[in-house]
Protein: Nitroreductase domain-containing protein
Organism: Lysinibacillus fusiformis
Amino acid sequence: MTVTKSNLYKVMHDRKSVRKYDENYKIPQEQLEELLVEATSAPSSSNLQPWRFIVIQDEAMKKELRAIANNQEQVETSSAVIAVLGDTKMYENAESIFTKNFDLGYINEATKDLMINNSMNLYSQLPQEVLKNIVTFDAGLISMQIMLLAKDMGYDTVPMGGFNKEAFTKHFELADHIVPVILIAIGKAAAPAYNSSRIELEHIAKFM
């Protein structure tokens, strides 16, 4: 049996990290909204969906952000920068999330009550550092989904973990429970990305 090379396969391999963007091209906000709505189909810990977003499109604000993001050119020249954040108080949304699942007929009432109680009891007792690790992991899942969807829509992206998170938090006046995780520049490529090799499977995987 071989892997069926579907459109997803093509999108995965066509997606590259682009750092040169057409600074005159602006993605319509409704397309950015559509992108994020579709991306939220990503999985998350206990389905608590801790991701939060700041979408920076304003030119002056992108210029300010560039200084926070180690002067990376793509912050300013891309159509937008999607800041992916994590909410360490995501468990406070458990009741609304699982009640909605119940209302939609996805779960029964007993499961709804169990999931609400379990989420509140477990996550509210976890140390902040553990919660930060959880939301960072979940932010990574949705970030990859954002980049694949963007490529499928005809746009290019590059993820950036290299930025001053303390300065970002201060600049955007984030609450204590909101953690900045990654910045994703998105737009139309002005130059192709470099190809890159991958480590052979025999060096990174064991089959037991």
Q: What stands out?
A: The first strand starts at residue 51 and ends at 56. The radius of gyration is 19 Å.
